[in-house]
Amino acid sequence: MEHRIDPWLILAVVGILAASLATLHAAGPVLGSGLLLRQALWGALGLLLVWALSLPNLSFYSQFAPFAYAASMAGLGLVLLLGEDRGGNRAWFALGPLTVQPSEFARLGVILMVAAWLGRSRSQRLSLQGGLMVAAMVGAAVLLVVLEPDLGVALTYLPVAAAALWIGGVPARTWVVLAVVAVIGGAILWQSGLEPYQKERVLTVMDPERDPYGGGYQVRQSKIAVGSGQLVGQGLGQGSQSLLLFLPAQHTDFAFSVWAEATGFVGATALLAAYALLLGRIGWTALAAASRHGLVLAVLVGSWLAFQVVVNIGMVLGWLPTTGITLPLFSYGGSSLLSTCVALGVVQSVWRHRLLYS
Hints:
Strand order of the largest sheet: 1-2-3
Shape: globular
Radius of gyration: 20 Å
Distance between the termini: 8 Å
Order of helices and strands: HHHHEEEHHHHHHHHHHH
Helix content: 55-70%
Strand content: under 5%
Structural class: mainly alpha
């Protein structure tokens, strides 16, 4: 039987993209129509990339991984020197009217390298040295992203490291060492790495009314928007929080709030179901993979996307600090959308060349 692309995964991707475009269309009177057109073009290109990158077999990605990792590290280094400064963050290359965010694409370079390295490992269980090697490969990229500084994107690299160590079967002492390093690193980051407004976001989660018109404003307005959607929503383009600009970053970080306000519990549940289908198909791909390399690739991509979905939704609902992490395939942004589609294309390569198919 011919190995085809996974139709259920594509259905989930198309459904999420359609909801994203509907949200941008509804926000057109406030944000302008240009965002909708650009996102539609990025979405069409992204679907093409999913198909195109599903065609090569996994040996190609294994051989290409060192080059992808080297290019990723070079891009992260160059953006610190030549990137465009936006609000104190030097994370973008400006290419005429377009901007490219290397940290979004570098994450896939890290995933390819870690998966290739684990796939070539003869042992089914990583040693302490092997675990530290995985942590170093991811940590080098995280350090460069933190220097931009973009703590939100840097956090999305961490589930890649955790999933790699878990699937690599590292010994318990490695987890202890890494836990100690994480605690020490977190303490140093809190004392000298976080800006006052970033600390305020963490403290606001524990006390939502701490600063309702400052650090807690975004989350407060987001919760009002989600709650005002009730069962079936106020209708696309009718939400007061969105139209009156009470809700900030409504096309990026808090795009889910706009959707929930417009479509209510029914629409929010449908969108979450689409993400559940997407992540479920990635998990099924991992189980059906023909090699350890394919298994690791699918698990790493799935772990990253699951983390990003959970953190963004948790942020929107006020359960987690505001981190600047976007909702994959839904929030506006070409770099985020295309990097996600490229990763899904690699996952579809695992699916095409799987052992078990129907």
